[in-house]
Amino acid sequence: MRCPSHIYNNNNFVPEKCQKINYWYHADCGGESQIYSDITLRCSKCSKQDHLKNWKFRCSDTYQYQHVKALSFTDAFTQLLYSNQDVDTSLEYKLKLNEFITLLLKNSW
Q: What is the three-class DSSP state of 12?
């Protein structure tokens, strides 16, 4: 999935930033991030789990970690929903992803 940290910069859409689709890794231990339907992110290695709004992200072209707004996550997940790079293209997966996007929109921060 795209890194959400630069999708919106000061509420302006920045489409040229972070177009690369990649895994999200936990900086503290290097574990892969797992996204849950209750809008939390969990590290697969150290098991740290918290709401998306409490995590900080950075892209490979920046050095500073920053909190990300729900709008940037919504855009990243929407692009994943409509991309051809999904690992799972089943209808069930697409419906779950759509439900997650709806939940993000209803609970933005």
A: strand
Q: Band of the pLDDT at 93, cuts 50, 70, 90?
A: confident
| Boundaries of every domain in the chain | 8-106
Res 41 pLDDT > 70: yes
- Given the structure tokens 């936990």, which residue do they identify? 26
17, 29 in Cβ contact below 8 A? no
Q: 106: helix, coil or strand?
A: helix
**Prediction pTM value:** 0.71
Nearest Cα neighbor of 59 from 3, 1, 100 is: 3
What local confidence, expressed as pLDDT, does residue 85 receive?
A: 59
DSSP codes, 41-105: EEETTT--EEEGGG-EE--TT----EE--HHHHHHHHHHHHH-S--S---HHHHHHHHHHHHHHH
